[in-house]
Specification:
This is Purple acid phosphatase. The chain contains six helices and 26 strands. By secondary structure, the chain is of the alpha+beta class. The strands form six sheets. The chain has an eight-stranded mixed β-sheet with strand order 1-23-19-22-18-17-16-15, with no helix packed on it.
């Protein structure tokens, strides 16, 4: 698309205004980085294939309905399709239940997938431990999970946040640190296996990644957001169906929220109404995604789910050179909705670093009015970038200078986040850096709920 001189001038003015305001803290911590992250070798224990004929592998779970009483159980078998059944029972009952799902396969260039199983088990009790068995008839494997508390405004619940994980030694450290956290459910903000970085989008790397994350994703739900590395669109090798590996391997409960695509949807989990948006699906005002979002937001009942959380991949507020301003078109379309409905926090990835801005908005800007500097807005969400999982592309280390006024904390390190919702008014957020083999709480703050407790929770002064 060609741009006129006035468009270039407008963008240049916007960029200059945004970066010429002194902001918060740029961390002084310098990661000991000799080279880019290194992939774990294919024979690593992290990728070990479970023993036994047709043994289920790459087991993972995600929420299977809108309120948390269903779970999608997914796994892969390689020798034959085997059984689609899941046997499950609760810790409070000796009665076994059986659910049967579907099996999928796909081809990608010169790769043919194993047999991908998805089974949705329903009518689960809240706040209950369930055990489940897959691989019926061949090699069985048993796992467990805990359902969330019943939807309610004051129930405590803890979410983890990871994005852009990949499968390097640093990825392994991030996942280990997260497993040692208090997280009950992982909010995953996109870019999973990075298979598209290998020759011909080597889909074997989807298999290794699935086995890598099983140690967490088989035991607690990962809520999926699609990133740019999930698109896998490559006409040069004859692959013209976007999201083919991702959509076959990682199902979402999009139908439960009347969404028209699996890449944007919503769930309720404990005290939170979580909206997942698709940075790489159409989002203009005439798009299906926009129409869905504008019908979904009025359904958010803050007297039942007190916290409104949004997930996306490409951040809207970003002061790194990597992907700078890339989220701007989507922000222009959607931001006023998040202010209107008092979103509490928006988590994104994409930029391979960490950043937390203050509560700001820029929804008055219309390109011609010159009002293009983000301003303090206590009705706006906090936009946090957690694209620091540890993938092979390495860290985004180049930052715009000086730090923008809206940026409270930024650091080029790997790590994970946690959001501990305490009640309807308070939640504690922390970002945990991978440092010398340990998880170090490098950034933290109390978040005040925008609906129930809309006080100023800023950590720096914004002029």
């Amino acid at each position: 698309m060609k741009m006129g001189n006035s468009s270039f001038v407008a963008i240049a003015l916007l960029m200059s205004v945004v970066v010429l305001c002194n902001g918060g803290k740029t961390s002084s911590y310098v990661r000991k980085l000799i080279q880019n992250p290194v992939d774990m070798p294919l024979d690593s224990d992290a990728f070990a294939i479970p023993p036994g004929y047709n043994a289920p592998q790459q087991v993972h779970i995600t929420q299977g309905d809108h309120v948390g009483q269903a779970m999608i159980i997914s796994w892969v078998t390689v020798d034959e399709p085997g059984s689609n059944e899941v046997i499950y029972w609760s810790n409070s009952s000796l009665q076994n239940f059986t659910a049967e799902g579907e099996v999928f396969t796909y081809t990608y260039y010169n790769y043919t997938s194993g047999f991908i199983h998805h089974t949705n088990i329903t009518n689960l009790e809240f706040n209950t431990t369930y055990f489940y068995v897959v691989g019926i008839g061949n090699t069985t494997r048993q796992f467990w999970f805990i359902t969330p508390p019943e939807v309610g405004i004051n129930v405590p619940y803890t979410f983890g946040i990871i994005g852009d994980l990949g499968q390097t030694f640093d990825s392994n450290t991030t996942l280990t640190h997260y497993q040692n956290s208090k997280g009950n459910t992982l909010l995953y903000v996109g870019d999973l296996s990075y298979a598209d970085n290998y020759p011909n989008h080597d889909n074997v790397r989807w298999d290794t990644w699935g086995r890598f994350i099983e140690r967490s994703a088989a035991y607690q739900p990962w809520i999926w957001t699609a990133g740019n590395h999930e698109i896998d669109f490559d006409p040069q090798i004859g692959e013209t169906q976007p999201f083919k590996p991702f959509s076959n391997r990682y199902h979402t409960p999009y139908v439960a929220s009347q969404s028209t695509e699996p890449y944007y949807y919503s769930i309720k989990r404990g005290p939170a109404h979580i909206i997942v948006l698709a940075s790489y699906s159409a989002y203009g005002t005439s798009s299906l995604q926009y129409k869905w979002l504008t019908s979904e937001l009025p359904k958010v009942d803050r007297t039942k789910t007190s916290w409104l959380i949004v997930l996306m991949h490409a951040p809207w507020y970003n002061s790194y050179y990597s992907h700078y301003m890339e989220g701007e078109p989507m922000r222009v379309v959607f931001e006023s909705l998040f202010v209107k409905y008092k979103g509490d926090v928006v988590f994104a990835g994409h930029v391979h670093a960490y950043e937390r801005p203050e509560r700001v908005s820029n929804d008055k800007y219309n390109i011609t009015n010159g009002i293009c500097t983000p301003v303090k807005d206590i009705s706006a969400p906090v936009y946090i970038t957690n694209g620091d999982g540890g993938n092979q592309e390495g860290l985004s280390i180049n930052m715009t200078q000086p730090q923008p006024s809206y940026s409270a904390y930024r650091e080029a390190s790997f790590g994970h986040g946690t959001l501990e919702i305490k009640n309807r008014t308070h939640a504690h957020y922390s970002w945990n850096r991978n440092q010398d083999g340990y998880a170090v709480e490098a950034d933290k703050l109390w978040l005040f709920n925008r609906y129930w407790n809309p006080r100023d929770d800023s950590t720096i002064h914004i002029p």
